[in-house]
Amino acid sequence: MKPSRLFFCFLLSASPSMAASVTWNEAGPTNNWNTTDANWTGGASVFTNGDSATFGAATGETVTVDAAGVTPASTAITGNGSYTLSGGSILGGTLAKGGTGTLTLSAANSFSSVGISSGTLSQTTGAISTALVSGGNYTALGAGPISFTYTAGITPLFFGATGTLTNAITLPTANVETRFSGSAGGRITTFSGLITGGNASATLRLDNNTAAGVGRFKFTNASNTFTMSRFLINRGGLEFTSDGALGNANNDLTLDVTNTADGTGLIFGADNITLNSARAVTVATTTVINTQAFTGSRIDGPMTVTGQTIKTGTGNLILNGTGSGTGGLQINAGTVQVGNGGTTGSITTPVNANGAATTLSFNRSDAVTYGAVLSGTGSLVQSGTGTLTLSAANTFTGATTVNAGTLNVTGSSAAAGTIAINGGTFKFGAAADPIGTYTAASLTQSAGNLSLDVSAGSKDTLNLTGNYTTTGGGIMVNVLAAPNVGVPYNLVNYTGTLSAHPPVTFTGLGGSRLAGTVDYGTGTNSVISVTFNGVIGNLVWTGANGTSWDTTAQNWLNGGSGDAFFQQDAVFFDDSASNFTPVLSGTLQPSSVVFSNASNTYTLSGSGSLDGNGTLSITGGGTVVVNNTNTLTGQTTITAGILQIGNGGTSGSLGTGPVANNASLVFNRSDTAVFPNSVTGSGTITQSGTGTTVLTGDINSSGFIWVATGALQVGNGGTTGSIGANPSSLQVDTSLIVNRSSATTIAAPISGAGTLTKLGAGALTLSGTNTFTGATTITAGSVVMANPDALAGSPVVFNGGQLAFNFGNGTTTTVSHDFTLPATGQQQFITTAPTSATTVRLTGKISGGTAGQTYRLVDSNVGGNHNNVLTLENPANDFQGRVEIWRGSLVFTSNEALGNPANGIRHESENLNGALRFGADNIVLAATRAIELGGNDDPIDVQAFTGTILGPVSGAGRFVKQGTGRLIMPAAMTTTAVSSIAAGTLQVDGTWSTSASALTVAVPGTLAGIGTINRPVTVNGTLAPGNGVGTLTVGNTTTFGAGSTYAFQIGDWTGAAGTGYDQLASTAVAITATAASKLTVVVDASTMVNFTDANKTFVIATGTQSGLALDNWTVTTTGFSGIGTWKLQVNGNQLELVYALGTPFDNWANSFGSLPANKRGVLDDYDNDGTPNLLEYVLGGNPTLMDGTAIAPTTQQSGSNLLFIYSRSDASELDTTQTVQYGSDLTGWTDVPIGATSGGMVMIAENDVAADTVQVTIPTTGNPKLFVRLKVTKSGS
After folding, report:
1. Which of 67, 320, 591, 1068 could bridge to 88 as Cys pair (CB 3.0-4.6 Å)?
2. pLDDT tens for residues 804-816?
3. How many CB atoms lie within 10 A of CB 616?
4. Closest listed residue to residue 355, CA positions, set 327, 397, 308, 418
5. How far apart are the first and last CA of the chain?
6. Averaged confidence pLDDT in the chain
7. What is the pLDDT of residue 672?
8. Is there a contact between 731 and 704 (Cβ–Cβ < 8 Å)?
9. Which string of DSSP letters, residue by residue, matches 1144-1161?
10. 659: part of which helix (H) or strand (E)?
11. Which CATH number fits domain 1173-1274: 3.40.50.2300, 1.10.3720.10, 1.10.150.240, 2.60.40.10?
């Protein structure tokens, strides 16, 4: 005994150090986690410090941790229930959060590490100590590192209070959304630990849990290296203390807050933060950008504004990147500065300077145009050394200040604003005409210039409703063309006073025959005016003294006398000259130039230029070649002849003035030359040089445009330059290039063998019926086909841009072009508006691309329901790279139509109504063609076909089987989101990974196959295990809902489960069908062999059984010849389908297929003929026909006897007792038993296989009346 006792003592002493694995029991006696209460299962019912604790239930509850704390080796949440761990602290070990539910921590814990694979981890107020309220650390998570390993988008962390998370965080490497969430109330969650990991295509979402919440997330660690496609600030705010705190330089920011409260939006948390140029900012909804009081808050990356941006904080926000979008910018405090002294920084959105203390400032060293509307009562400041042009109809009433450079107002402004010129130049005038009128409240000038233009019959006018106060600077009068002599030009009208006489300088008069004088007016309500004196010359070119056109050579006649040219003279060229090659020297400013030559060609050359606002006219029918560089801003008119720009070399230009072409305009240069002029008229335009002519003006000509040699380019990367809708036709024999950042349209029909090249980010719409045959190369932006002939027969080469289809609603259009994809993946095709329901069939060959790149083939670029369809139909397609569906449907008519067999498919999350769709029968997608489901509902539609996906399916999206056909999936499915079968049959022959998210079979969908599904399955439609006869395995619970169907196939009556008949192998089977909406088991024996009509039990499902009731199921058959009965029963962990051959009566009743199952009892009378089923059975009747009279027994008199005669079925001999009874009244009866053979009063005639004839002879002597009846009793009843 001693050894035994010693051994027992050893066990006792060892047990405290042997840690167990225990699982929380929700049915335990208490909800306390301590070392005394028996609330656990597994190794022990009582927890011991050092045990590994698991919470794995599907419901969850609140667990109160012992006040002294517990010390598990590990804590794991594996079930889908939501747990709250409150009370005391968890004093060590690791924390692993799985399952779909929420884990709420509300104490100061000390985990060694935290891992989150699914579900949500919530940090509440209860976890915040008193010290933490004023800036302590979150303690519920301990100090260990936190790592995320999930592969589906979840909300991993929820913060319910202000505090700092010092833990190191590793974000998931999968392409999923990570969401940090917090409750409302102005709470600030600070992340000071190092954040690493991530995925370049993923999203980090910051969500304040309520739409009106003002809590914020603050990132302070400048060494963060995590990678994300974007920060999505959904609700609440993002504050950062450095650019590095936002992780990888390419992590973009998307503001989708819809809240203007303080503490929301994007918040600069320190001074002199510059968001780097690779970090794009997108404002999608109404959102705040708060600089607080910091003056150096700068955004160097591109900023797209489609929503409303509210600038708050008294500091400066410097926009030093490229701005785009048509949303709004409202400055509620401080300054927004565009540019930082260099050549970058722009905005395109309207600006509201909302308050007198707000400012919009421009600080660029080059020329920039702001074309949106400026409103409000704040200030506008031009502080850069470049030129700022305001071109919109502005309504702001605040102060305008010019500190440097030039402010040029070509639009309009409200009259209430003031002007201050402290340096630089202020000028105004219309966009197409430098002459204009401007009204302001007052002008204060300490330096710089007020610039005013004067032409022949027009002038600038500045109207001041107040004072003109000047302490420095002056007025610069620009003479654009010869002014009228002796007529005062009123330039400045002031209602108030003029404090001093600003000096006036003239430009454009030097070297002319004119001089100007100034009148400053007197007192109030007066005018500053200038008057010109002198006489301009009217000169005719002779060339008598050579070819020089300067201000000294006597090559002109002035009224018949030789003369030299003076500035502002009017000059004429005709056929009377001695030479026709004027060589210009210096800057020449004629008031007008007229070429009336008809037979000779004039060529202008030299280092000099024609300048100013004078006019140029070609009237004589001859040719004028401009081979020098000119800077004219006045009108050029071609009424006859040819005006040729360049002579085959690298020189020749007009300037910037508009051109009215009613004859011929020709470009002939060998280099790239910009033509900024607008062109109108009915004349022809010809590109004849070997170089490239770049049109940056609007060509509204109605004549013929011919690109004969070289290249004609529309636009130079900006928003100007167009051909418009007016040209009668456009013939391209060489090259047409379009390079704009904004949209433009070419409506003229394009012909020729030349090429079309699309550059620039803008969209080019081709709306003409085109016939050109050269290649179309799309390098940037998009080409929009407005009709099927827009690209004629042109092959399309993608080098970076997209092709958009803009066909009619509901149309189906065939596009037969060949396409070459670029080396780098991108969006390729753009469908039209989401609800247009257009179908585009791509029948040409698609080649090119690069393996590993992603090419988005379907996208409307607009949110909403997407009914557009793109079809790939060419089996010769050999492009490489992954295919992406973003919005709309992609249809393929063969596996080969999807290009290289290794090309995967990505079905993206924004595809609400679209699908990946099989377009023909029996398509088999290659095993190497992997499919990724990006998010939300990602339908795969086989239509009415049978299709097979041999490759794996993965991703975070929700798989939806659509179409009435059969989809066969023999490969793995690793997506963990909910899945569904909306219609048709899904045949699962592969393995689906473990997930808590269910696969739901809707009506009229069917789930079939021999694979394994490791997730819950809910059947509301049909379950049909096997692909023929087979076993379908479900590694979770299978639920048969109300009205569901189990399609059960028997192939071999004598076979085993899985080979002879179907079986469902499930962890559990739950039947939730009801008596009103039953589970129907349909027995399909149409291909069955080896049948013998005998009792048989089939195990149709295995696993824990629940829910089967007497009245919530029914069995029907198809192709089954047996006459027995079927029933469902539970036998342990088996759901059995039992076939019972039954009594002869049962077999007889079951042989009538139209007889309802509930009308097959012995006393039932379905046909209402007065003859119950048992008598019909004996008498050979049909229980579904009213034949009671026809089969009834008969009687006849035979002497002193009554003969009682009836037919008896052979089968009824086996299971009935038949007795003929007679009597003189209805109370006493004499029995005549009917046996198998004749005897006594009974005579039986056997009729082979037909019914027997039974005759009973009943004496009538002494019975004046007689009653006779047939009594039938079924055996056992």
Report:
1. 67
2. 999 888 899 999 9
3. 24
4. 397
5. 69
6. 91
7. 98
8. yes
9. HHHHHHHT-TTS-GGG-S
10. strand 659-661
11. 2.60.40.10
Contact 361, 341 (CB under 8 A): no
Distance from C-alpha of 1134 to C-alpha of 1064, rounded to nearest angstrom: 10
Closest Cα to residue 264, out of 209, 335, 192? 209
How many other CB atoms are found less than 10 A from the CB of residue 921?
Answer: 12
Using DSSP's 3-state secondary structure scheme, residue 908 falls into coil
Please tell me the predicted confidence (pLDDT) of residue 153: 53
Residue 1099 burial by CB count (10 A; 0-12/13-18/19+): exposed, middle or buried?
Answer: middle
From CA 969, how far away is CA 959, in angstroms rounded? Answer: 12
**What is the distance, to the nearest Å, from the Cα of residue 51 to the centroid of all Cα atoms in its chain?**
48
What are the pLDDT digits (tens) for 596-618? 999 999 999 999 999 988 999 99
**pLDDT-based confidence at residue 104 (cuts at 50, 70, 90):** confident
- Write out pLDDT tens, residues 402-452: 999 999 999 888 778 999 999 999 999 876 567 899 999 999 999 999 999
Query: Sheet of 437-440: strands edge to edge?
Result: 437-440, 461-464, 489-494, 526-534, 514-519
Residue 1138: what are its φ and ψ, rounded to 5°? -110, 130
**3-class SS at 946?**
strand
Q: What is the CA radius of gyration of the chain?
A: 46
Rounded CA gap, 374 and 380, in Å? 9
| Percentage with pLDDT > 90 across the chain | 74
Q: How many C-beta atoms surround the C-beta of residue 541 within 10 A?
A: 24
Residue closest to 925 by CA, chosen among 883, 958, 886:
883
- Nearest Cα neighbor of 1049 from 1060, 1034, 1065, 1033 is 1060
Cα four-point dihedral sign 856, 858, 863, 864 = negative
pLDDT tens digits along 306-344:
999 999 999 999 999 999 988 999 999 999 999 999 999
**pTM confidence score:** 0.69
Distances (CA, A) of 579 to 541, 595, 722, 924: 9, 14, 38, 80
Beta strands in 413-465 (DSSP E): 418-428, 437-440, 442-454, 461-464
* Model pLDDT, residue 461: 96
CA-to-CA distance for 1005 and 982, rounded, in angstroms? 5
Q: What are the DSSP E strand ranges found in 898-1028?
A: 905-907, 916-918, 923-925, 931-933, 937-941, 946-949, 953-955, 958-962, 966-969, 979-981, 985-988, 991-992, 999-1001, 1006-1009, 1012-1013, 1017-1019, 1022-1025
Q: What is the pLDDT of residue 724?
A: 73
The confidence band for 130, taking pLDDT boundaries of 50, 70 and 90, is: very low
CA–CA dist 936, 914 (Å, integer)? 11
Which residue shows structure tokens 């009279």?
Answer: 1189
Instruction: Give residue-wise pLDDT tens across range 1037-1053.
Output: 999 999 999 999 999 99
CATH 2.60.40.10 range(s) for the chain read 1173-1274
Q: How far apart are CA 783 and CA 794, in angstroms?
A: 13
User: Token pair for residue 1042?
Assistant: 């109300």
Distance CA 115, CA 102 (A): 14
Q: Is the pLDDT of residue 396 over 70?
A: yes
Q: What tokens were used for 521?
A: 């007016």
The number of beta carbons lying within 10 Å of the beta carbon of residue 377 is 18
Q: DSSP letter at 339?
A: -
Distances, alpha carbon 203 to alpha carbons 178, 232, 233, 242, in Å: 6, 7, 10, 20
CA–CA gap between residue 656 and residue 659 (Å, rounded) = 9
Helix (H, G, I), strand (E, B) or coil at 885: strand
Strands 623-626 and 601-606: parallel
Residue written as tokens 């300054």?
A: 335
pLDDT value at residue 196: 95
**Does residue 502 have a cis bond before it (omega within 30 degrees)?**
no
Rounded Cα–Cα distance for residues 1 and 704 (Å) = 119
CB half-sphere exposure, 915, CA atoms < 13 A: 16
Q: Give the number of C-alpha atoms closer than 13 A to the C-alpha of residue 1123, restricted to the C-beta side.
A: 13
Alpha carbon distance 218, 258 (integer Å) = 19
